[in-house]
User: Fold these one by one.
Assistant:
Number 1:
Amino acid sequence: MSEENVSNDPNKKRTRKKRKNFLANAKKYAKKGQMGRGTKIPEELYQYFVGILDAMKQGIEDKEERHALVNNVLERTKGEEHNVVGNQLGCRVIELLLPFASAEDLERFMEVLSPDLRKLCADNFTSHVVETLLRVACERATEHLQTGDDTTSDTEEEVPKKKVKKEPKKESKYEKDHIQKCHEFTIKISKYALNNLEEFVWDQYANHILRSALKCLSGITLLPGEKPKVNIFKQTVNDGKGIPPHTTKMTYKTVPDEFKAIVKDFVTRLSAWPQFKDLPYQNITSGLLQVMLYAIKNVDKNATKDLLRKLLDESFAPEDWVGNGDDDKKDVKDGDCEGNMNQGSLPPVFDSEAAVRLLEAALFVSKKKTYTQIYARCFINRLGQLASMPMLNYTVQRLIDNCDVKEEFEPMFEELSDKLGALLACGNTGVLVALAKACLRLKAKQAQYLNSLEAALKCTTPEHQKYFSVLCLRLLPADRVDLTTLDKEYFINVHGSVILQCILDFQRPAKAVNSLLELTTDQLMIVFCDAKGCHVADALCKGQYVGVKARDKLIWRLKVCAVF
């Protein structure tokens, strides 16, 4: 990191490209006399859809009003379904309304669009409607199968437990006939996609229908890192946080065995392709394989293992690949980044970002034995090199996040422990977060992590040790921080805050606790009043190994600032 990679100025924010406003663009097209892209629809209908989008954007809280709006809009599309879904604006409106459609309206769209699936799946507008139809049909077909607990398949071979009384299945709000039609439509679309696999894989729009089919058939709710889509009606999603980046859990819905069998067929067909080994190296096919890995994980453990083994043997690190043998001799010094790295010793998977993302998905779904094989073939003796590279440090984070065996984590830590200074210099601080979380999760190497971090922050001397917590929050070494201005507002690194929170939950957090309590009241208030620093106060008060006296001391220190 250069002097404060992210500036010390708290008001300086990363500029983001302004997102295009779909509704504003639609109005602009109408003024020019252009009724959107795609198929032509009458101007009156186009203006009607603009008004509907406007009303939806304002938010319709009343359920009866929302129900009436959905019914009225879908009624207007009768006889014009193909024209409407082929138009940019019409497609958007229908896509938003279908999840709220009545059984009759949903069945009408299924019936009207089914004969032209080949053309619709490859179109840049109608393909979105087909995806939404598939998703809504699958939700309605499986809604009655869900209980209070969603099933997860991330656990290792489960230990037999005492039988727990399951919550009763949900009562469906739809008639059996509608549920059966949704079930049949889900299977029809999925099998159609499977039968046209060779063509759909390479089409940028149809490829996403393959992905949606796999997600629906396997019961995937959200992919790792994926956020739930909130409908424009401003209806809140139940647990609207999505899945955070550092997670090793996924939740699946209950789906019928008939759905799972089709997922197996997808895997069997695709893995039998002669060009399978090249699929991880293209973005479009890598994305499909990632979804396939998450899908098969919930369907068949043996098929998951076979697919991972095939990827490892044929694509990630093929048997005929030979490195130059000097991986363990490479040393990453402070300040060394990708410019000085020789990639000749790295397996082929690390040459392509698309393949690297697939490797991360493989780490996520792999069980102990397969995980060990991936680690041994792709990562061992290369972690220092990989962790210092802009793209590949994220893969090292995923490797550490998914490590569940203490004995396996220890050599990883040893390989990286003397590279923390270089990682700070490169700005790849996410690796430090992953290490801290793993030390906490596996209860291993906690003291060594503290010592290595102290050395990287250059605060091992007695006069600097009291500033450990501040340097950790800023993730800057002592010689790059003005220690006389800690009572003035400064930038707190979000990774630094997370690391300090982990350290406060270590079995021996005294070093971090003492360094916080040695700060003056004004200096503490700067930390605790910051959006990222305030969580440190929570960790200090909740830490199971933080002493009562330390908490009392904190309260007395802050008492003077309290307003009653």
Number 2:
Amino acid sequence: MFSSQILLFSLLLWSSIAESLAIPRSNDPRKYIVQLSSSTNLLSHIRNNSFLTHAGTAGIGKENLQGTDGTIERVYSIGNFTAYLGSFNADIAKELSASADVKQLFPDDMFRVGIEDINLEYGQAVKQSGIYEQQAPASWGLASISSKDLFWDDATYKAPLPLGRGVKVYVVDTGVYTEHPEFEDNRAVKGANFVSDESDEDLNGHGTFVSGIIAGALSGIAKDAKIIAVKAFNSRGFSSYSSILAAFEWIYNNHNSADRALINYSAGGRDPYGIMDPIIEELFSVGLNFVRAAGNEGVDACSYIGYNELAITAGSFDINGNRDDFSNYGECVDIWAPGKQIISANSRYKDGDSYFTTKSGSSFSCAHVSGVAAVFLVHGVFPQGLKSSVLGFGIRNQLGRMDTSDTNLRLYNNLDGFSG
């Protein structure tokens, strides 16, 4: 009797778990990303798979390709990278994944921007010939990146003029509160929104904070750069592969290869399908450098986001020059930048909250790197050599609590080299 009760309880428990995990039955459609092999033509692929052909193959657009057994909802084309979002049952998904046309098929999963939160207040600036000086900058990070010494003599941010003038920084994030005074003189604009059920406003604060570090009037590094807000994460900090792909496709299509520009991607999320590598390659091919966060799981970044030779991957250190415990680490992290208790623009300022707020995370280390990179782009550094310049000007062997696999390299803005 007792064993029967245990069995019944186990069955009920498994049923509850299965339901909570939404395990798909063969007749239950689920959203998938289908990445085609580089040699595959989309129209040929649709013709070769009869369940995708019922909408007809002539004049196929980028949305609403209807099929009897599945629906292609959106097509993504970024250079030689082609993928689509579709709703398919398990049988169709299995057939598609076995197709020679398909490189991989995976669920359109959700993932989250990783941050740690806190709260505070600051600033004041003057321009001298060839050098910008800001006494008591909003955040310690600004003083850090303009000092060759780990422990700087005074809390001053110094940088070579101009501070990123003419450079566009695409911030793929939760949006940006562009009316914040930190973005005076139209230095931040709304580009596109790929969160279907939200406005283009920053309802989370992460994107506004990141953008403040990059180009804010008091909290920013490249104060003359232009922020282009590309909203792909919702008010809770979540996004999906479909939203991210749409964001990068929009950037690719709207970027002028003659422009000096880069992408700040402070998400730092796991990429188990390796979907980012070919996209980063296509973006780089048109002159778009890609700066990303190492992540905040405190694990080896190689096992989390992996290594990409074209991207610049940033880990976090604190005001005492020690690697932050939350930061991912290892040889897949290219450079280390300030990331703990950083002060920047508060998106809730519009609601009467404080002008600044304080946050921690490798997202903000990433933003420091993007700010320095934007300044480099107006000082004779070409897009193809931006990563090597950022790493080449870094200061070696000053940081503590480093793993033996870490590259001990601290971000530096090459003040002496550009202003001398």
Number 3:
Amino acid sequence: MAVLLWLFSIYMIINRYGEFKNWNFSMILFVVALFSISWSLASMICIHLSSLVTEVRNGNYTNYMLKPTSSLFFYCASQFPIRTIGDFLSSLILLVWSITIIPIDFSVMDILFLTISVIGGIATISGSFIINGSMAFLNIDTSMSFVNIFSKLRDMSRFPLFIYPEYLQGFLLSIVPYGLVAYYPISSIIFEKKRTILLYFTPCIGFGYLALSIILWKYMEKKYEATGS
């Protein structure tokens, strides 16, 4: 509901004042939809990591460490938040809507690039969940910090990044690369006539971000082991 209200406000602004530097409502809707698809799929896998601190504090996390598989993998696989199905379906509806109204003829390479971008987006957003969850090993309740930080970054990434100062653009493209989830691929498809082969490898940055988050997780997990909890 909040997303729909937000989109309605964007529609009214554009309808009254015109496009944002050649970005119309259908393009912004496409960014929102593509980002939401990646977010909902990543949430199916990792969103419950934000409540890991409860397992750490009561000592139940030790049970996950005794499993033959990775404790991170087992913890993520042990739960499935049902509500994420609704998030995914609503995101899918937004995606279909945006595709039907956006004035673009997608090529096979465009579709392939967007598909890879969604996969890279899942990796990026999952990495953020893992970073957030890893703080639980320091006995820090990160449930609110996740809402206040990563969710705000998510909301910022729904807009074309050019409306932000350069330092924020850089942050959303390199430090927490949410800008590569939807804005950058869509911007490239719409406005870049000549694309280099390197463009199609930008989703790999999401996997690099995920790998770094897993390294951080393992480092923080050792602190939990050291306490003998």
Number 4:
Amino acid sequence: MADPVVEHEPEIEEEEEEDVVELKVTGLTGVKVLWTLFERRVQPLKARAHPLYQYTGDGDPTRTSPEVLAPAELRSQVWMVIKLLKDVEDDTAELDRHQDGLAPEPAARREGHDSFTPLRARVYYPPLPEGEDTRAANRAKNERLQALSLQKKKDRAAKARRHMLRQQGLLSDESEETDDDDEDDGGDDGDDDDDDDDDDDMGERYAEALGLGKRPAEGGAGGLSSKRVRADSGQGSSGAVPGSEGDVPSSTEGAA
């Protein structure tokens, strides 16, 4: 057996009922709001055909007419909205009072604020014109800034790559000296970026991210660098290491 369907009707608190009664006494009801809305023909509710600064004034044919609608037309406009409600008896009676001019007026009208509000209540200025010279200068400036930014990125990438090669031992001494001279000559290029002081750290981060940082020890004591290998190969085929006196033959031994 299916469960019975229970309809829950919304309960209105006593305070809310008192507020509604007070609003009705002052004339601020749904019909009053709609009536005032259609009577004054509020402009923001209509789609604008042009930007605000292009309207010529109240007489612009593309804007809503400032003329007050006739009572019969107002009633028709309001009825198109409230007829969707279930209980419209009270609203119909209030519509009759509005059409006959017997409904209470809103406070704004009593205070003298019922005048038509022009569309151009504020001054709207069109966009500033741009000549061909201005556009060309702006375009050239943007292209120059983009070229400088691209060149800075390339220089930083090359510097990071050289730093990575130094850590791998793949960069010769002569290349290191040449790169250092180039960096000293081109270091002051008017770049005020704060990232220049962190180029070395950036290179280390690149090397670490690529797994090219500290290499694991090979053969127990660690592998020999390319500099050490070149230094050892320059000592001759004997492989003698300078500085060990026991391996160097004396003059007397040579004579014997």
